[in-house]
What we know:
alpha/beta
Amino acid sequence: xxxxxxxAYESAQVGxxxxxxxxxxxxxxxxxxxxxxxxxxxxxxxxxxFYPLDFTFVCPTELxxxxxxxxxxxxxxxxxxxxSTDSAFSHRAWLQTPRDKGGVEGLxxxxxxxITKKMSKDYGVLIEDRGIxxxxxxxxxxxxxxxxxxxxxxxxxxxxxxxxxxxxxxPTGGLCQVEWRPGQETIKT
Length: 189
C-alpha cells in the first residue's frame, strides 16, 4: 500500500482548545438521530479514534481492542469515540456484523460519521484525494484542550495500552519518562 498524505491545514494543535464538532453518530443505533459532539465529553477525557473505513481489515482490530479495554478507559475518566468518513448507516451495519465476519458487534462506544469531512480536515487527518481519514488518535482533556495526538499511515493499528498510559501520565503534571506507569516517580529536576 502506498503512503497516504493528509491535508496540511489542520486546526488541532496540542495545548490549544480542540476543534469543536457535532456529527451524526450511532449513540442511538436504532434511530441514528443523536449526534456526537465535543461538549458531550466536557468534564471527561475524550479519545478520538479516526480510522479510514468501515468493513476493512486493521480498523476492526483497533476498535474492538479499545472496546475490550473500555472499562479501563472509564476507570481513568475517559470516553472513546470512533470516527470515519462513512455514514451512520454504514456504521450501524458494521456494528451489527459479528466480529468473526469482520464486524465490530458489541462495540462499547459510539461511531461518529464525518460525512462532510470537516472534522477530518480540522484534525488534519483527511486524505483529500481519497475522501478518507488517516489513523489519528487525539486525547482531549476534561476542559476541552487537546493534550496528545498521533497521526500515521493506514497500515498500522494504534495501542489502547499506550493511550491509557498517556491519559494516566498527563494529570501528574510531572516529567514522565519512557514506559512510565502509574505509581512510579516522575523525573525530578
